[in-house]
């Protein structure tokens, strides 16, 4: 399951999956301030829908195609992380969404490191090799 940034994700008839495995069909949706208000088929009241908050994802087979240098966060989890010279840094645990940019959470020998997911620092991602290459500024992973 994936998080989606597809602008049509909330079109009527689109499907989302609840964490418990139920497939939910969108009946209608509209933007409200900084979020979407979504009505699902079969949910007639706000209290019925409240239990669904924050526990929704998109089936992997219903996600949009990615462009160059775009990756699904769940594909990065478990990748080895290294510097350009081959020095091993650790293993990517997850990607945390951020307001300016996402952060790659890396489990290192020294603990947890947070790496901004920007091209100047994350210089290469090879999903076939399960490898993320970094060029971090000094002290970022200290």
Could you write a compact summary of the structure shown?
With 142 residues, this protein is mostly beta strands. It is 6% helix and 39% strand. It folds into 2 domains: 15-62, no CATH class; 73-134, PRC-barrel domain (SH3 type barrels).
User: What is the CATH superfamily of the largest domain?
Assistant: PRC-barrel domain
Q: Strand arrangement, largest sheet? A: 8-7-6-5-10-9
* CATH class division of the largest domain: Mainly Beta
> Structural class from helices and strands?
mainly beta
Per CATH, what is the topology of the largest domain?
SH3 type barrels
Radius of gyration, in angstroms, nearest whole number: 18 Å
| Largest β sheet strand count, sense and barrel closure | 6 strands, mixed
Structural commentary:
The protein is mainly β and 142 residues long. It has two domains: 15-62, no CATH class; 73-134, SH3 type barrels, CATH 2.30.30. The chain has two helices and ten strands; from the N terminus they run βββαβαββββββ. The protein has a six-stranded mixed β-sheet. The longest helix is centred in the middle third of the chain and has 5 residues, at 46-50. It is elongated and about 55 Å long. It starts with 14 loop residues before the first strand and ends in an 8-residue tail after the last strand. The model has no long low-confidence stretch (mean pLDDT 87).
């Amino acid at each position: 399951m994936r998080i989606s940034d597809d602008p049509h994700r909330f079109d009527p008839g689109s499907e989302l999956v609840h964490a418990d495995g139920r497939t939910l069909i969108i009946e209608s949706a509209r933007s409200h301030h900084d979020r979407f208000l979504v009505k699902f088929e079969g949910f007639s009241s706000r209290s019925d829908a409240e239990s669904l908050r924050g526990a929704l994802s998109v089936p992997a087979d219903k996600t949009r195609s990615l462009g160059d240098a775009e990756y699904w966060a769940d594909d990065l989890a478990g990748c080895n992380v290294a510097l350009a010279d081959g020095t091993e840094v650790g293993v990517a645990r997850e990607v945390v969404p951020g307001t300016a940019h996402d952060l790659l959470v890396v489990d290192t020998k020294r603990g947890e490191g947070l790496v901004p997911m920007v091209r100047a620092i994350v210089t290469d991602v090879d999903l076939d090799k399960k490898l993320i290459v970094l060029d971090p500024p000094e002290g970022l992973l200290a």
